[in-house]
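Sequence design from tokenized structure. All designs in this work follow the same two-part layout: the structure record, then the generated sequence. An example of the structure record is given first.
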């Protein structure tokens, strides 16, 4: 297998953790800055126990009294309503500004008293760069580096520079270029950052290589959370979207990442839309152009919201989001078992300008019948040739189910199952109607992605209508609160 094959931006099929968001993805190609910045020191603060070991608490949310998003330029200001130490962390609820509090502007220096970077919580995040284990991984390091065992200060090797090299499992060892390390995992740590390139993408931080069963490998990028977010914001939402929408995206993406820091031995999130799209610091597209995975705008969005996350009843929750809901988001509990009540169905007519607000598609009857047959066979059911496909009457806002009939029997299937079973790109969302003719099935649908939670195109519309960042978050996660995490150990 080609060691860089995993870097191609392939479309995730069916139900994913986030959304199928090709429509929303930025392909911006900003000029690459000549200067390189150093990676900030890694925080060693662990998540508080309630965030690590307990599932999200279900029940009635507390909501927000009023937005603290008051600056005319939409720069967040944190109100110190309460701060409760939680195993090395404190959280500050964002509701309204303190009397006399000044809003931070873009002209304020990064370290001034109004900056949200002061005492902000910035732990490392582990991003799986390989959707599936690979036989070979290609990487290089532009400058001095060390080789460590993850979690250990012991230096296994070092070098002044690593030219493009292959990494592969050899026996019980991992070979990096011409050097073998007789362990099952290694971490390559550049002295400066960004300097490490995996395939055609340049990353900040370090990269860990894990040997997996079947003599295969996965690559995991370890970097500061806020650096990761600077790239995710650009990867998920165009820079042309309003600032309030992009700041909301930053908070949603941060919450999603932190909510997944639950003790997996190797990584927290994927770099694809299986979690959140992450294009690193720089990447080379299919036409050979060197593009920026992050930009000054993306970093500003991360910095201006530093440490801010969404909570429900004082617990982090998974902030599911979708490219365009098509008019109404879907009740999260009908799609994801871990969705809290704040991830509920809301009417959203703010994403009308999305390309896939409405869509059509068609496929021959034989192919649709085969896809249905394959899915039903998993449950021990057989299926002939499709005769009809109709949406079942249900509760408005819940995940739609469909009745498929071959003339002999009728089976019930979720929209997400049909979407994942049919060819990639045919069904843009689980919301559609179908017309079956003798030779063809014609689909008409709405929205793009799974339809749950924060609507990215909807946030654009809300921001254009004058809604603030916190108002946008409250709209899509009713009953939630917004807090700022900070390190309280110092």
């Amino acid at each position: 297998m080609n060691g860089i094959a995993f870097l191609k931006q392939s479309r995730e099929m069916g139900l994913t953790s986030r959304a199928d968001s090709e429509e929303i993805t930025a392909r911006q190609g900003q000029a690459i800055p000549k200067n390189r910045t150093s990676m900030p020191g890694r925080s060693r603060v662990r998540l508080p126990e309630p965030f690590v070991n307990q599932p999200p608490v279900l029940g009635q949310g507390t909501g927000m009294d009023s937005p603290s998003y008051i600056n005319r330029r939409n720069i967040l200001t944190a109100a110190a309503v309460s701060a409760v130490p939680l195993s090395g962390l404190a959280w500050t609820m964002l509701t309204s500004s303190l009397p006399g509090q000044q809003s931070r502007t873009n002209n304020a220096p990064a370290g001034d008293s109004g900056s949200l970077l002061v005492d902000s919580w910035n732990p490392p995040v582990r991003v799986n760069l390989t959707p599936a284990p690979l036989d070979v991984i290609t990487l290089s390091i532009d400058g001095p580096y060390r080789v460590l065992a993850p979690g250990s200060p012991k230096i296994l090797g070092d070098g002044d520079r690593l030219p493009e090299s292959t990494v592969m499992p050899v026996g019980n060892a991992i070979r990096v270029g011409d050097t073998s390390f007789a362990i099952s995992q290694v971490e390559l740590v550049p002295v400066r950052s960004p300097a490490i390139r995996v395939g055609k993408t340049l990353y900040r931080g370090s990269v860990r290589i894990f040997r997996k069963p079947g003599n295969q490998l996965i690559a995991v990028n370890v970097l500061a959370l806020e650096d990761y977010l600077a790239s995710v914001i650009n990867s998920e939402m165009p820079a042309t979207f309003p600032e309030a929408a992009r700041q909301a995206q930053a908070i949603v993406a941060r919450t999603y990442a932190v909510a997944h820091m639950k003790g997996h031995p190797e990584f927290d999130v994927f770099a694809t839309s299986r979690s959140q799209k992450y294009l690193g610091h720089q990447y080379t597209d299919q036409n050979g152009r060197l593009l920026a995975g992050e930009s000054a705008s993306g970093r500003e969005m991360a910095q201006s919201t530093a440490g801010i996350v969404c909570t429900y009843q004082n617990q982090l929750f998974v902030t599911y989001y979708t490219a365009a809901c098509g008019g109404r988001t879907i009740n999260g509990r009908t799609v994801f078992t871990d969705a809290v009540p704040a991830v509920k169905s809301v009417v959203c007519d703010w994403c009308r300008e999305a390309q896939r607000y409405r869509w059509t598609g068609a496929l021959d009857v034989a192919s649709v019948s085969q896809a249905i047959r394959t899915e039903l066979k998993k449950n021990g059911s057989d299926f002939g040739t499709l005769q009809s496909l109709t949406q079942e009457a249900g509760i408005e806002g819940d995940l739609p189910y469909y009745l498929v009939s071959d003339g002999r029997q009728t089976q019930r299937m979720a929209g997400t199952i049909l979407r994942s079973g049919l060819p990639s790109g045919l069904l843009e969302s689980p919301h559609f109607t179908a017309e079956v003719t003798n030779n063809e099935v014609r689909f008409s649908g709405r929205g793009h992605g799974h339809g749950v939670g924060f609507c990215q195109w909807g946030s654009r519309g809300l921001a254009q209508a004058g809604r603030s960042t916190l108002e946008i978050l409250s709209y899509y996660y009713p009953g939630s609160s917004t807090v700022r995490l900070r390190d309280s150990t110092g």
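The chain is about 15% helix and 25% strand. We note this feature because it recurs in several other targets discussed in the main text.
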